Amino acid sequence: MTKVILAAIASLTLSNTYxxxxxxxxxxxxxxxxxxxxxxxxxxxxxxxxxxxxxxNLYSQxxxxxxxxxxGLLKVHHNxxxxxxxxxxxxxxxxxxxxxxxxxHLHYKEGERLLFQTQGIELQHTGGSQQLPELxxxxxxxxxxxxxxIAHICLKLAELSIPExxxxxxSAMSMxxxxxxxxxxxDSIENLKLYIFDGSxxxxxxxxxxxxxxxKSNGTIKFDEDKKxxxxxxxxxxxxxxxxxxxxLDQIRxxxxxxxxxxxxxxxxxx
Length: 271
Description:
single chain, mainly beta, 58% strand
């Protein structure tokens, strides 16, 4: 579970590799596998694709994207269009082994908004896997500043919603240790909400063990574009009046996640 939340936060602050004016993708489905040695490229089908990147404009219907993600290098090819970006082998995102989705929609407009919705997504990362029946991410910047990076928009105003998150045994054990050693039967969380406003965040979700428990946390988040580094200050984390801050920080530290380190109340994620 920790990996999915950190990956979600990381996705909020990814900078644009290319200065796109606007991108729309409708009904994208398929899988992106970084561990398949037999296939150079995998395929993601879509119903509609529109890319506006001056002076180039691309519009296509009912076709496929050729994709590859190996050792931190992401490749997306469509006919003569080739977009490659190297996250680096030390990047947290390079630990993603497989992403599979039944349906995904994306709309990005430079300096204004990012809308991302997906259904039936499964994420496999080094050390664990999680299933998300549904995910929605909305980022907006009403200041009308002409900026090209997604980080600026999503750190200005963002909302991430995951109605249900199912995770594997390893993540379930981590959750049990954070909440209570006896809660080993917890294998999912519900109604996860993450809000970001001007660099401050609030997050909450529900777990069920005998009763419904609501876990709440807040703090600040910053992104250093030059260093590709996310800095998260965890101010509070609790269920009811019981503080979970120390346990959460310990679990992230003990998980030995690649490119993630904990120093005091700070969490650093290297993209």
